[in-house]
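User: I'm putting together a teaching handout on how sequence relates to shape, and I'd like one worked example. Could you take Coenzyme A biosynthesis bifunctional protein CoaBC from Cryobacterium mannosilyticum, show the sequence you're using, and then write out its predicted structure as tokens right after it?

Assistant: Happy to. First the sequence, then the structure tokens directly below it.
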Amino acid sequence: GTPGDLTGKRIVISAGGTREPLDPVRFLGNRSSGKQGVALAEAAAARGADVVLVAANLEVPAPANVDVRLVSSAADLERAMTEAAAEADVIIMAAAVADYRPSEVRAEKIKKEDTGDTLVLTLVRNPDILAGLAAARKPGQIVIGFAAETEADPGLLLELGREKAARKGCDYLVLNRVGWTEGFASERNEVRVLNRHGDIVIEVSGSKMSVAERILDLLS
Ligand code: PMT
């Protein structure tokens, strides 16, 4: 990217994976390391943007020159994003957010002596943070979401991305295939960026930093 081309822009980025508590010592989580969101934050700051990074359980260090807001659960992330969104020109949701959380958080550690050989957890839906931010966006504010799908067939993968783009109502949706070794926690990423009509506007495969730079090119 061109140095300074995002000067004066306030960009709010979520990164990492949420943790939904079960009891004081356990959670339901996912394998997001935060690398893709952190690369976006680092690249945006290097290009002059004023960056807020809403960081959920990162496995990599946050960049030094950004305003970091630490969160853990989807509910925390929603509060932090909603607060930061009020001042944002651009919102990017790179975090992997739990779709469900345990219906109750136990005050004491769940004990196998009490539960026996099988333990059934009841989960309830979390709000869709991205869809909420997109629906509430101010005039001129740009909202970018991600779509993480395990579908192996490239055509079907694109279909899922298009459906998600329509459902979420964001300006751009970054579609990446994820799996045991791809997307989550990897060094590289392979993405297609869709606009709100589902047209492919960018196709890039490379380091998470190079993917970040191409996404930010949409803003300059
Ligand atoms: O962190 P890394 O290890 O570098 O991995 C990067 C990544 C694969 C996690 C990242 O590139 C990515 O795809 N992030 C989005 C993961 C995700 O939650 O995808 P999804 O298809 O389940 O959700 C779609 C979009 O809705 C995402 O922007 C997500 O942030 C958002 N969402 C999802 C559920 C929910 N309850 N609220 C949301 O806002």
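A couple of points you could highlight for students: The mean pLDDT is 97. The helical segments are 35-46, 74-85, 112-115, 129-135, 154-168, 208-217.
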